[in-house]
Design brief:
The structure is a single chain. By secondary structure, this protein is an alpha/beta fold. It contains nine helices and 14 strands. It has one domain: Ribonuclease Z/Hydroxyacylglutathione hydrolase-like (Metallo-beta-lactamase, Chain A, 4-Layer Sandwich). The chain has helices spanning 22-28, 58-63, 88-91, 109-117, 198-203, 221-225, 232-235, 246-249, 274-281, and strands at 2-7, 39-43, 49-52, 78-82, 103-108, 129-134, 140-143, 146-152, 176-182, 185-190, 209-213, 256-260, 284-286, 292-293. The strands form two sheets. A seven-stranded mixed β-sheet has the order 6-5-4-3-2-1-14. The termini are close together. Bound molecules: D-malate (MLT), manganese (II) ion and zinc ion. The site of manganese (II) ion (MN) has 6 residues, from loops.
Length: 295
């Protein structure tokens, strides 16, 4: 299985357009590598590729990824897009993929219903772009030789669908993780997860590689830095640090562990900071745009 990180960032990317935090300033000055928004590409044979989440940066992500360059006058190696939720950073890129090329979008009914309810997504010509409704815990094959299973993880509905009351730990079709299996290797891709439950821990036992929600280091990171009012929990993202954080909860996993969907405010982006040192000591890596992983 070939995995390529197209975008290591969370919604907004690094630098985020309206943010003057230290990380964003460092990315503007070139002291930190920029990150585009949340997406992975996966292939079994190196020829056909599935993209997991279609970010608003997908045009540039394709432009800098040789594996995704057209193979003919109007032939793309893209075969499928798999969505883990309806968040803007995961679906807006579908609008860029509108130019008469055949591929299949795989997502839960709840997520596909969001696309169907928004007329702008009708630019994906239904004669060419099939929408495949995936059921939780039922394997499907977006590529020959790649078995994918979506499973519920704690999360909330997309920001633009929030009502007055938001259940940030809801379990269902609105936020899923993906188990990928090919050539005897098992990879989990979980870019959004509000809580590491015992069920999730048990599920990850067969992992060779886990790509996990690295949005914030601390739950109160945005309020405490003045960059926003919301906690990680309120945004549907478990923090890396703390007794219930992902580092502590996933400490028993001895496989390769990589954080993805990293918010621009996350202090672990600083290579020489104490947060990065703690993360590395705990056996984790931070993803970067263009990172290639062969599990
Ligand atoms: C998230 O991951 O929390 C969302 O991408 C937020 C957003 O839509 O801006
Ligand atoms: Mn996001
Ligand atoms: Zn910032």
């Amino acid at each position: 299985m070939h995995i390529k990180v197209l975008g290591a960032g969370a919604g907004g990317g690094l630098p985020q357009w309206n943010c003057g935090c230290r990380n964003c300033a460092d990315a503007r000055s070139g002291r930190l590598p920029a990150m585009s928004q949340s997406s992975l590409a996966v292939s079994v044979d190196g020829q056909g590729w599935a993209v997991l989440n279609a970010s608003p940066d997908i045009r540039q992500q394709f432009a800098v990824t040789p594996q995704l360059a057209p193979t003919g006058l109007r032939d793309s190696p893209l075969r499928a897009v798999v969505l883990t939720n309806g968040d803007i950073d995961h679906v807006a890129g579908l609008l860029t993929l509108r130019e008469k090329t055949r591929f299949t979008v795989f997502a839960t009914s709840q997520t596909l219903d969001i696309l169907d309810a928004n007329a702008v997504f009708a630019v994906l010509d239904p004669a060419l772009v099939e929408k495949s409704r995936i059921a939780l815990d039922s394997p499907f094959a977006p590529l020959d030789g790649l078995e994918v299973t979506a499973f519920a993880v704690p999360g909330k509905v997309a920001l633009y669908l929030e009502g007055d009351e938001v259940d940030t730990n809801a379990m269902g079709e609105q936020t899923v993780g993906l188990r990928l299996s090919a050539d005897g290797h098992t990879v989990y891709y979980i870019p959004g997860c509000a809580k590491v439950t015992d069920d999730l821990l048990a599920r990850l036992a067969d992992a060779d590689l886990v790509l996990f929600d690295g949005t914030v280091w601390r739950n109160d990171e945005m309020p405490s830095t003045g960059t926003g009012a919301k906690t990680g929990a309120r945004m549907g993202h478990v923090a890396m640090d703390g007794p219930d954080g992902s580092i502590a909860r996933l400490a028993g996993l001895t496989c390769r562990k990589v954080f993805v969907h990293i918010n621009n405010t996350n202090p672990a982006l600083q290579p020489d900071g104490p947060e990065r040192a703690a993360l590395s000591a705990a056996g984790w890596q931070i993803a970067a745009d263009g990172m290639e992983i062969t599990p």
